[in-house]
């Protein structure tokens, strides 16, 4: 469609970016070493300055100041990302996502095997 050739609006950009962020968290090291933790902290800090939606980036910086990213473990980062996304969901009047389902949604796929490509990204 023509839309696919248009620059993304904040919705399209947001969906694509959450896909990236949650998937990155889903494949983060189970126990990150100091160097990996530092790199992830600086990635997220830089991200919060350059995300190309001004009000979104500003909200993210506020959230990160209140709740610094948990970069020690994969599970911690995945949960932090889920809570951060939920803070945006609340801001936009959307339902909160059940963070116990984050691995199913972004890494493993549902247990009925319908997503046969799950884990292809590794
Ligand atoms: P999205 O919110 O994009 O979610 C995509 C999919 O992620 C959902 O279908 C669901 O399966 C899953 N999901 C939903 N919540 C969670 C969760 N908590 N944890 C894990 N998975 C989840 N828009 C604004 O208008 N104002 C803002 O201030 C704003 N800030 C943003 C900040 C960031 C860092 C990002 C990446 C986006 C921001 N957006 C903002 C965009 C907004 O979050 C949505 O991406 C956009 O409104 C499209 O929403 P959507 O309903 O398609 O689903």
Automatic annotation (TrEMBL):
Source taxon at top rank: Eukaryota
Catalytic activity, EC: 1.8.3.2
Keywords recorded for this protein, A-Z: Oxidoreductase
UniProt KW Oxidoreductase keyword: yes
Broadest EC class assigned to this enzyme: oxidoreductase
UniProt protein name: Flavin-linked sulfhydryl oxidase of the mitochondrial IMS
Organism of provenance: Coemansia helicoidea
């Amino acid at each position: 469609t023509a839309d696919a050739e248009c620059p993304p609006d904040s919705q399209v950009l947001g969906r694509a970016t959450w896909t990236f962020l949650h998937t990155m968290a889903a494949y983060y090291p189970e126990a990150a070493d100091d160097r990996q933790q530092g790199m992830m902290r600086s990635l997220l800090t830089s991200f919060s300055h350059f995300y190309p939606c001004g009000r979104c980036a500003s909200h993210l910086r506020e959230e990160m100041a209140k709740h610094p990213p948990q970069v020690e473990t994969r599970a911690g980062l995945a949960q932090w990302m889920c809570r951060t996304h939920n803070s945006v969901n609340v801001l936009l009047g959307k339902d909160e996502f059940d963070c116990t389902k984050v691995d199913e949604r972004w890494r493993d796929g549902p247990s009925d095997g319908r997503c046969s490509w799950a884990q292809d990204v590794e």
